[in-house]
Every structure is written in structure tokens, then in C-alpha cells.
Amino acid sequence: MDDNAIDALLERVLAPWVRALGMKPVDVTEESATLRLPFSGELRHSGGVICGQVFMAAADTAMIVAISAALGGFRPMTTVALNTSFMRAVRKGDVLVKARVLRMGRNLVFGEIELYEEEGRMAVHATSTYALLD
User: What string of DSSP letters covers 33-55?
Assistant: First the structure.
């Protein structure tokens, strides 16, 4: 999938508030996707750090792209589980979101997502399970 196809996919399948995060593809292979989550002060909560909800939405979004790339295109799917560990606070800067498919089954897909802050340190680690719906 090229950048235009990924942008079109994100525009078509994401909720408007997730699209508003402005995530853009950096690198997509047959089983992985790296997206950039651009920094915005509006993503921070009153404690001055980016909200966990933002990171979970970013992780979920990157995994949808990785699964779509592995399948050769988007198929309807739904998140079954998204287990997230927040390892360090992120106060500023773009975040790289790296998702990869660990196992593609007939009906279930297992993945891993890592989010890196601007200095290259992992801030969030997540594992996920998706059900393919068709």
C-alpha cells in the first residue's frame, strides 16, 4: 500500500475524532506499519502529558494499517483486545507508532505496537487481537 492508499483508508474507516489526530504513514511493509502522530498541545490532559486515550487510538489505527497491508487491502475488522502499557510520559513532540502483525489466522490477527517519543525512547507498548469480519 502506498501513502495515498493509506491516507484514503484512514479517511474511509476512522471515526472523525481519530482522523483529527492527523496520523501519516512513514513506512509500510507487508506485515508492519509505522505512522507519525503529530504533536498538538490539545492532546495533553491537565497534567501536561499526552493522554493515554490518544496513544491507544494511535496504536489501534497503526494496527489497522499493518493488517490491511498484510491482507493486501482493507477488510472489515474489529478490535477484540488492546492491552496497553504506558512506560513513560510524553509531554511534547511527534510520536512514531510502529505496528506489526505477529500472527495472521483465518479469523483472528495478533499484533504488537510500540510508540516512540521524539528522542527515540519507547513510551508505550501494546499487544492486540483483531477479528476479521468477512
Answer: EEEEE---GGGB-TTSSB-HHHH
Q: Please state, in angstroms and rounded to a whole number, the distance separating the CA atoms of residues 133 and 110.
A: 15
What is the count of structural domains for the chain?
Answer: 1
Tell me the H-state helices in 29-134. Answer: 52-71
Compute CA 46 distance to the chain's CA centroid, rounded to the nearest angstrom: 24
State how far the Cα of 55 lies from the Cα of 50, in Å rounded to an integer.
8
Report the alpha-carbon distance of residue 86 to residue 96 in Å, rounded. 15
User: Which residue range is the domain that position 64 belongs to?
Assistant: 3-132
pTM (predicted TM-score): 0.94
**Per-residue pLDDT tens digits for 47-103:** 899 999 999 999 999 999 999 999 999 999 999 999 999 999 999 999 999 999 999
